[in-house]
Amino acid sequence: MDSSKDLGLYLNKLKKSNKIIIVEGKKDKEALEKLGIKNIIELSKKPLFQVIEDIADNGKECVILTDLDKEGKELYGKLSAGLKRLGVKVDDSFRQFLFKNTKLRQIEGITTYLRKIGDDR
Predict the structure, then answer these.
(1) How far is CA 19 from the centre of its chain?
(2) Could you give the CA distance from residue 105 to residue 69 in angstroms, rounded to a whole number?
(3) Residue ranges of domains in the chain
(4) How far is CA 68 from the centre of its chain?
(5) pLDDT greater than 80 at residue 5
(6) What is the pLDDT of residues 57-111, one digit of tens each?
(7) Domain 3-119 part of CATH 3.40.1360.10
(8) Residue burial 90-117, b: 16+ Cβ < 10 Å; e: rest
(9) Each residue of 28-51: pLDDT tens digit?
(10) Whole-model pTM above 0.85?
(11) Residue among 1, 3, 72 nearest 43 (CA)
């Protein structure tokens, strides 16, 4: 399995989807925008319950891309539970892919990571 090719496929799916993408901070958002991904909500701007309610009002599907560290996992759990409770479908396939197939643990590092795996070929 070529995880760099699969990563590219996942990123293309995110670009084409109209799912709401949730990230922790400004650098995460900027990294994804560099890859052409839109529809990104940054958590650092509002209280968690507000973000959850806004997403429930605006979309029925989202992708949570919090960092894959302890704090990010806790945030993921709270967001996922809150969103599911309000009927929002949480697509965590990309998050699971990152966790299992890459060494990437912070979303803001995704562009650097892509460059690095491109250079390793």
Answers:
(1) 10
(2) 7
(3) 3-119
(4) 10
(5) no
(6) 987 899 999 998 899 999 999 999 999 999 999 999 999 998 888 888 899 999 8
(7) yes
(8) bbeebbeebeeebebebbbbbeebbeeb
(9) 999 999 999 999 999 987 899 999
(10) yes
(11) 72
Confidence at residue 121, expressed as pLDDT on a 0 to 100 scale:
57
The two three-digit tokens of residue 110, written as one number: 């995704």
One-character DSSP codes across the chain: --HHHHHHHHHHHHHH---EEEESSHHHHHHHHHTT---EEEGGGS-HHHHHHHHHHH-SEEEEE--SSHHHHHHHHHHHHHHHHTTPEE--HHHHHHHHH-----GGGHHHHHHHHHHT-
Cβ neighbours for 75, distance < 8 A, ≥ 6 positions apart: 24, 43, 48, 66
Residue 74 φ/ψ, nearest 5 degrees: -65, -45
The model's pLDDT over 52-63, given as tens digits with 9 standing for 90+, comes to: 999 999 878 999
Residue with tokens 């496929």: 9
Pull the structure tokens for residue 4: 């760099």
